[in-house]
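REQUEST ID: PR-0412
SUBMITTED BY: lab tech R.K.
PRIORITY: routine
TASK: structure prediction, single protein chain
INPUT:
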Amino acid sequence: MGCERTWLFTHSDEELREVWWIHYGRYLHERMQGKPTQHITGVQEFYGREFRVTPDVLIPRPETEHVIETALRLKAGRIVDIGTGSGAIAVTLALETGANVFGTDISPAALRVAAANALGSKVQWLACDLGSALSGGFDLVVSNPPYVAARDKSTLQREVRDYEPEVALYGGDDGLDMYRRLVPEAERLLAPDGWLVMELGHTSGEAVSGMLGAWRNVEIRKDLANLPRVILAQRP
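STATUS: complete
OUTPUT:
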């Protein structure tokens, strides 16, 4: 209809036009085939802002807002979001903190979506593997890495399995490959006393915590469902 939701409330007695029904029928058919609602509407709300999403990026989840809440407590002036995807984390942190923020991704297509989501922020986007295009000196490295075990692919909802990018979903056979790479990469990128904040899969907390054996102030924080959701640690 091309209208805001509030229009529906203020015009509830208006009869639907034929062209609206045609659009609705098409979108309903797509949804019945498993296409995510966010791919149909092209947007997803995250931390109070609307972000554009396409099949090139992971759809931002409400659980990832716990990453934002954790990061905001750390008062970082220089931040890098590794595997930025839609740019939701990087842009949110830039707008909420005014920090100097970088977003990296191995996918140029994902970075094009992220750049379109800048929302007036001044995030600097870089196409590279992890943080390989950057030198050190960061106060905060943040990431929502791919953490689904490839062996569990068949158990995923079809909305996820068939429509979201595999590079953003699967972290090797056990789901931990990206964490194994991120921990030493973060140590290289961080300034002394810098922090690493990563989203966790609900079964990966203990394994990832073990990778941070030499790090300080390691802490796992749970989400509203009481599942391990975020791990943070200070550079060793």
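NOTES: The longest strand covers residues 190-199.
REVIEWED BY: pending
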